[in-house]
Amino acid sequence: MDFKEIKNTKHYIYDNQEEFNIARNNIPVRHNWRHGEEGEWVFTDDGFVCQILRKSKIKQRDRSVTCIRTVCGTFLAKDKNREMLGANGIAENIYTFSGTNMSQKEFNERERNSRELLFAKYVAGGTGAVEAYRRAYPDARSSNYIKERTEKLLKTETVKKMIDKKIQELLNEEGATPNWLIERYKTIADLAENDNAKLRALDSLAKISGLFDHTEKKSEQVTIWAGFSPEQLEEVKKHGKPELIAHAEKDKDD
Are 49 and 18 in contact (CB under 8 A)? Predict the structure, then answer.
């Protein structure tokens, strides 16, 4: 939730319908903001909720077009190529079609990145993902919204890289560098008192070195013998040599 104060009146934008319902119970929300009327609450194209502050007509190429103003900026109702996105935040200048200017966009981007970095830091440190989101985004209130956003962040490539980087930084701080880990595996393999521990250490070292190609397809031999059923073949194997007429290999997946 956020707001913009205009002439001593706060005009809010809510992160989702659940947050809106808590603050303004039983007020209907129009799904298509392009058809909204002045004073109505509407959904943005990405699911935020804001109010239409002004609906007006302007002249454009000798015809009248509808303009809708919210805290997200001013939009042409007919312009299907431009979405109203609550995630962009409140426009610095809500009275222009450009919406947020470059400095505001850069500020929003920096804020978004810093929040994601904070989320990644908490996750890397061992905090549960949902709790990490609550800490990084303390203004979020809806449990369902937090869960959805958490799942989305964890699937985001940028955030995954942030988490991996933070985990590596934490390991390095503790001296658990890749070389240290390899040395430890090798020490266990050399000095382990039982074969199971040695095999696990050797298996880990083999994987690290790339010795095992796990993408390699398993294959099995298919042998065709002339004139024999499986039962007959077993009997023949006991007493003679069947004639081999074909031999091939096939993937186990086939």
Answer: no
Name the domain boundary from 100, 131, 154.
100
Residue 82 resides in a domain:
yes
Q: Where in the sequence is the domain holding 163, given as residue range(s)?
A: 104-172
CB 34 within 8 A of CB 43: no
- Taking only the tens place, the pLDDT of each residue in 197-232 is 777 767 776 765 565 554 444 444 444 444 444 555
Q: Report the candidate in 86, 9, 88 with the shortest Cα–Cα distance to residue 43.
A: 86
On the question of pLDDT at 81 being above 70, the answer is yes
Q: CA 143, 144, 146 angle in degrees (round to 5)?
A: 65
> Other CB atoms closer than 10 Å to residue 48's CB: what's the count?
26
Average pLDDT over residues 29-41: 95
Sheet with 2-6, edge to edge strand ranges = 2-6, 9-14, 49-51, 41-43, 29-30
